[in-house]
């Protein structure tokens, strides 16, 4: 977003979960006089841009290709959205190839852009207080903390890693797993928290 603003563009972010219909997005496009749109997730975001009057691009999510594609209605919608999109972005060549196998006419408009994370160091973050609050010993010489960054929802299955890391931690107490992300599925989030407490 900062890059778009720096280039002189106005950027408005809208969460697809908060949108009722494509009509709501069409009204927003008209009211704000948008020139273009970019949606994340071929189904979740893209379905709201179907038939819109401005050019748009799509960023594939893993859920699109790994899950939503199995549902006939979602598959149909995703194919329509992809046909209307000016371009699509996949994070891996594998996702691009899977999408191109489903929708061969879209192959030339799917580009691969690997993901990356940009972090900004915090002047006020206290690592030792963080470890103490998390119940992680600070007197360990070789502390190994692995971070899983994902929205807490069943489809991501972080509980698999919790089980694996628990076994590893029992053998090697210096190994810890941290899970960072929004509580997308509140019930599943409670399940994860309960499991982590044990």
Automatic annotation (TrEMBL):
Entries under InterPro entries matching the protein: Glycosyltransferase_G1 (IPR052622)
Alphabetic keyword roster: Transferase
GO molecular function: transferase activity
Keyword Transferase: yes
Keyword Hydrolase: no
Domain of life: Eukaryota
Family matches, as PANTHER family: GLYCOSYLTRANSFERASE 1 DOMAIN-CONTAINING PROTEIN 1 (PTHR46660:SF2), PTHR46660
Protein name per UniProt: Glycosyltransferase 1 domain-containing protein 1
Species annotation: Tinamus guttatus (White-throated tinamou)
